[in-house]
Amino acid sequence: ETGGNSDIILYSYWRSSCSWRVRAALNIKGLKYEYRAVNLVKDGGEQRKDDYKKLNPQGYVPAVVIDGKTLSESLPILEYIEENHPGERSLFPSDAYLKYKTRQICEIINSGTQPIQNLSVLQKIKEDFGGDMNAWAKFWIEKGLKSVETVLEETKGEYSVGDEVTLADCFLIPQVYNANRFEVDMTQFPNIQSVVARLEVLEAFQNAHPDKMPDAPTQQC
Q1: The Cα angle at residue 54 between residues 49 and 57, in degrees rounded to 5
Q2: What is the pLDDT of residue 3?
Q3: pTM check: above 0.85
Q4: Architecture of the domain delimited by 96-206
């Protein structure tokens, strides 16, 4: 839930999947936060400006200011929040093996899928290598989701890991959005599709959707 009076400040871009993960998790936990937009495309990208790099020297979103500290990288941000600001509920199962499976799904997306198709990589492929950005992104997203689909064969209940929403779901939803943007055939992923259909009706995920963000363009191409 966004708000102007909060102890948590989230620096975000409306369509950043990494920022989306954090938004969804904060919503699920019932933690209010202040949203500060960072435009990744305007004037070469506000994330590259000196003012923002003082917050996150890497020049990426999200960045979260919490407890007087500035955090970056979505997974460690969310693990910090889980440990220090549990909110209304945990995002990990209590069972050790299922906790591992939750992290496994997160990492398939976080390390093996999203970074290879993020904006900076796609721009580099186009500008320096003359490559087809869409074909590149589609290939890597499909490869990553095939791995997630296989894991869900074992772990899926109502959601990605059992019948409670976990951090894995916060990572899955934005990646499926990207898959649809790049026209991946999602019919090959029935487990993912059934989980996503259940997640999309939850208020926490609806309120984290890019189209609901204050910096979302009124008309999208």
Answers
A1: 80
A2: 55
A3: yes
A4: Up-down Bundle (1.20)
